[in-house]
């Protein structure tokens, strides 16, 4: 491989076009070829990124100038297409999920490791500076013990017409697998592997085809429950997401599915406040009373603090810029490993497997209504 990174893209939909532009912001990255079952989509993207169009995926895999295959097709194709690329000796970055079944994801990960090939799924949330900041707050125990969490995803179905593959479980895997993997991965990164307690799926009434548009799961992380809810049933203008982590000294709330805004509310000592302020230098701070050191009780223990504070940082308007940054950071990190396999990546093939594991379990064991 030369000093640059040459990419072939399979799947020329909207997100692939977005990702391609983010990839090209990295010096040395070149997109050589695009392929898609819809030739007009492939031609349009190829024109935008100055790439060649291959009518067939097999032709792309035969191109020895291509180092890495980026897969942005519907989920039911991910396993077979990733396997074909790995067998051809290509590095692979695939959109989520890795596959519709955990054993398929495990097979891909094992083959890539054995053959010193890069294989990962674009679980880009871990590249978010807010994700890292929350990880620091948890690890340093600035808000004490984690006791409960939730992720509420009130998503739009405005572009998901009845014939869209999203509603077809055989093609998408269902909402837990198609979409939930991002958030199962975030929580496992903060707290370690989760253990499913309960899950459900609710079908929309009054439709000619089965449309499961709401799912919910409860997963234990370190013996503390987290509720995951995903609903795809409203106009785009109402689309919103909220993630909250509750601790015994306060809480953290993140806004948007790619978090760009954070709110912390809790009991802080002067030292903790100084540390958190260094993480969020431009934050808005509201202090609810000051004075002598205070003593309260929770969980039968004494809690010492100097002030009850609300700290807010970030702007929802920055969502798309942040999204772009995450995709760019992801590829930069993965390319660093291709150049030097001693590089420790933020995400690797283990994330691909673990995120599908809990998602598949939630889907298989869901009570259906």
Task: Describe the secondary-structure layout.
Blueprint: E1 5-10, H1 14-23, E2 29-35, H2 39-49, E3 52-53, H3 57-61, E4 68-71, H4 78-87, E5 91-94, H5 102-114, E6 119-121, H6 129-140, E7 146-156, H7 169-172, H8 175-191, E8 195-203, E9 212-221, E10 224-234, E11 240-247, E12 250-255, E13 261-268, H9 270-279, E14 284-288, E15 294-298, E16 301-305, E17 307-314, H10 319-339, H11 349-364, E18 367-368
Parallel strand pairs: 1-2, 1-4, 2-3, 4-5, 5-6, 7-10, 8-18
Antiparallel strand pairs: 7-11, 8-9, 9-10, 11-12, 12-13, 13-17, 14-17, 15-16
Compact description:
The protein is an alpha/beta fold and 369 residues long. The chain is 35% helix and 31% strand. The chain folds into 2 domains: 5-125, NAD(P)-binding Rossmann-like Domain (Rossmann fold); 126-321, Dihydrodipicolinate Reductase, domain 2.
3D architecture notes:
The structure is a single chain. The protein has 369 residues and is an alpha/beta fold. 35% of the residues lie in helices and 31% in strands. The protein is built from 11 helices and 18 strands. The strands form 3 sheets. The chain has a 10-stranded mixed sheet, covered by helices on one side. A 6-stranded parallel sheet has the order 3-2-1-4-5-6, with helices on both faces. Helix 1 packs across helix 10 and helix 4 packs parallel to helix 5. It is globular. It starts with a strand and ends with a strand. The relative contact order is 0.15. The mean pLDDT is 95.
């Amino acid at each position: 491989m030369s000093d640059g990174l040459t990419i072939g893209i399979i799947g020329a939909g909207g997100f692939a076009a977005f990702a391609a532009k983010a990839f090209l912001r990295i010096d040395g990255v070149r997109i050589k070829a695009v392929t898609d079952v819809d030739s007009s989509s492939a031609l349009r993207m190829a024109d935008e990124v100055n790439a060649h169009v291959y009518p067939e995926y097999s032709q792309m895999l035969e191109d020895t100038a291509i180092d890495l295959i980026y897969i942005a097709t519907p989920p039911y194709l991910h396993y077979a297409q990733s396997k074909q690329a790995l067998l051809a000796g290509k590095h692979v970055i695939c959109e989520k999920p890795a596959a519709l079944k955990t054993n398929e994801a495990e097979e891909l990960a094992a083959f890539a490791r054995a053959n010193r090939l890069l294989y990962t799924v674009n679980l880009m949330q871990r590249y978010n500076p807010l994700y890292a900041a929350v990880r620091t707050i948890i690890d340093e125990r600035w808000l004490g013990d984690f006791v409960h969490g939730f992720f509420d995803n009130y998503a739009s179905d405005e572009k998901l017409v009845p014939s869209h593959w999203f509603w077809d479980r055989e093609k998408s895997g269902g909402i837990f697998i198609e979409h939930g993997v991002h958030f199962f991965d975030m929580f496992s990164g903060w707290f370690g592997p989760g253990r499913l307690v309960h899950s459900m799926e609710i079908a929309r009434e009054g439709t000619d085809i089965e449309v499961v548009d709401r799912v919910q799961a409860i997963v234990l992380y370190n013996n503390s429950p987290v509720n995951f809810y995903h609903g795809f049933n409203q106009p785009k203008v109402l689309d919103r997401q909220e993630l909250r982590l509750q601790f015994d000294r306060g809480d953290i709330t993140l806004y948007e599915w790619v978090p760009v805004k954070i709110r912390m509310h809790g009991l802080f000592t002067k030292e903790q406040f100084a540390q958190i302020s260094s993480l969020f230098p431009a934050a808005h701070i509201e202090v609810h009373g000051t004075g002598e050191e205070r003593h309260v009780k929770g969980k039968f223990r004494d809690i010492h603090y100097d002030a009850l504070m609300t700290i807010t940082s970030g702007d929802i308007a920055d969502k798309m810029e942040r999204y772009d940054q995450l995709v760019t950071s992801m590829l930069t990190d993965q390319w660093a490993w291709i150049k030097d396999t001693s590089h420790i990546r933020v995400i690797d093939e283990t994330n691909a497997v673990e995120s599908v594991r809990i998602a598949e379990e939630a889907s298989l064991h869901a009570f259906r209504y």
